Amino acid sequence: MHLLANAVGGAFKVDLLVVDEAHKIGDNQRGVVLQDAIERASRSNPTLKLVFISPATQNPQELLADAPEGAHTASFESDVPTVLQNLIVTEQVPRKPKLWKLSARQHASMLPLGVVQLGSSPGSLKKKLAFIAAAAGERGGTLVYANGAADSEDIADLISQLIPEVPSAPELLELADLARKGVHPHYRLAPLVERGVAFHYGNMPSLVRSEVERLFRSGKIRFLVCTSTLIEGVNLSCRTIVLRGPRKGIGHPMEAHDFWNRAGRAGRWGDEFQGNIICIDPQNAQAWPDGVPERARFPIKRGSDAVIEQGDSLADYLDRRATTDLADFEDPNQFEQVASYLLATFLRQGSIAQSSLAKRHNPATIERLEASLANIATQIAIGPDIAARHPGVSALGMQRLLDAFRNYKGDVENLLPAAVDSQDSYDRFVTIMCRINQYLFPAFTPDKIIPLHALIVVQWLKGFSLSRMIERNIDYHRRTGRSFKLPVLIRSTMEMVEQIARFRAPKYLSAYVDVLNMHLVALGREDPIDGDVDIGTQLEFGVSSRTLLSLIELGLSRVSAVALYEKIARDDLNKEDCISWVREHDAQFEGMDISAIILREIRAKLLPEGNAGAATSTS
């Protein structure tokens, strides 16, 4: 939403804003960015209607505490379930590893349900999840929760070996083809979906993820092994969900409200009367340190409030931030987001004492923060507008970057990123990332892998497909004699695309370019400023040409846009030109070796309804 507001400026007009999963305002990092986005929308739209939705919330009225003066507010609470949810625990029968007894927990009592017999002894944690899910979820519609992407692939593979083989539906074969062409010929998803099993995690291409979700909803995919990404961010229900020792992040046991948010996916409203939540090894203290959580309501607390309530810690960080090199901080991420948010608020209002957050905190704490912020504000000349455009990026860091630009003795054009197709583009990105680490924030660390980060960014901006980037990564490892495991390399490439090219790079490079443009204007050198698409938007979508951007503006996923762009000669087509090109070449698509799923999306998005319907039926 921040990118949208930056792109459209004064045209950022919103009548109704719905914030689903609103308790995420309490997340350590993302919560502050979410809070800032909501406040930004409210400031730009005085008549905005705002709706928060959050499951099992103890204090929903807390979300209304920052409503503008005089705004009408109301909270509505309901615990009425749309389906009956059965919490079932399963434990091994003593001395018989293939037999597992099932019991339904009803308040403080247990109701014995029976015994499940497994085909083989589950000798590992992954096998426990796979074997029990396959036995208890044989009707299909089964979600299995895994604690990481690698585990999700392994568990899905095990399940696929346990279920009867049936002829693959045509749609499953199409998804397998997309996985092989869009990711890698040996991507583990392809043979699994042919058997009606899949995995799902956040770094997968969006078109692959959405097709997995669609086929699971339709029942074509019977077992889906997922990480928290799917259960947190997608409205996907199931008949049965299977868990053992769920974690949130590495080594952090899942808290009760997160557990029940995930467990709440069990039961299909309108399709099923009930859903089953199967918890494995409930007595195992390592898996369930606090036991299987009881259903209860849970309080919401803003991430910013949690940091401010630490007393003087945040003010101490602000004081050090103004005088100390970032390299001397052990963990700047702990306070940087909230510190940046408060500094942007101070620059905009001239104080935080009158802001809505001040009334929720100790006056002495606010007074101390006010003094620290006032001291920093005297050092800053970038202005509140630029600070507001870059949530989570410190205005103090941007000021230090501006000072570095002012002290630069070379040609100012050397500070600019080069066009991505230019021969010196890669070297420029390496230099810029080093400069960002030094003055703005250590976002691309450790320094020794900045060249790899720059390479990923260049390939992403050039419009490389994920499969092409993976092949380049494989070639690099082979050429340099580095050993690798293909599944790990595929996942690590996906992760770098998401975390570097689509998150850190747009966040910090867009701030870099904004500050540099400010410096160029002050020098009277507006000529090098690129007035077309800002670098943040280019990186978010992985585009640098007008044609590729036009295809995405028309609604294509990046996977489909890149596949189509590889067939188009010109790089300067607008949206109307792209539609004309597709209409002219539609009859030739079948011979272009494009995935059927991609063809369906292209025809659905770019051709008139009548034409698209006819075309889809032939594919």
Q: Any overview of this molecule?
A:
- This protein has 619 residues and is an alpha/beta fold.
- The chain folds into 5 domains: 79 residues, P-loop containing nucleotide triphosphate hydrolases (Rossmann fold, 3-Layer(aba) Sandwich); 197 residues, Rossmann fold (3-Layer(aba) Sandwich), CATH 3.40.50.300; 106 residues, no CATH class; 132 residues, no CATH class; 74 residues.
- Helix content is 47%, strand content 10%.
- It contains 25 helices and 10 strands.
- It has an 8-stranded mixed β-sheet, sandwiched between helices. Strands 1-2 form a two-stranded parallel sheet.
- A hairpin with a 2-residue loop joins strand 4 and strand 5.
- Helix 19 packs antiparallel against helix 20.
- It is globular.
- The chain starts with a helix and ends with a helix.
What's the helix and strand layout?
Elements: H1 2-8, E1 16-19, H2 30-44, E2 49-52, E3 84-93, E4 96-106, E5 109-117, H3 125-136, E6 142-145, H4 149-160, H5 170-182, H6 189-193, E7 197-200, H7 206-217, E8 223-226, H8 228-233, E9 240-243, H9 256-263, E10 274-280, H10 303-308, H11 313-323, H12 333-349, H13 363-377, H14 384-389, H15 395-406, H16 425-440, H17 450-461, H18 466-479, H19 486-523, H20 535-541, H21 546-553, H22 558-565, H23 575-585, H24 596-606, H25 609-618
Parallel strand pairs: 1-2, 3-10, 6-8, 6-9, 7-8, 9-10
Antiparallel strand pairs: 3-4, 4-5
Helix pairs in contact: 3-4, 5-7, 11-13, 12-13, 15-16, 15-19, 16-17, 17-19, 18-19, 19-20, 21-22, 22-24, 24-25
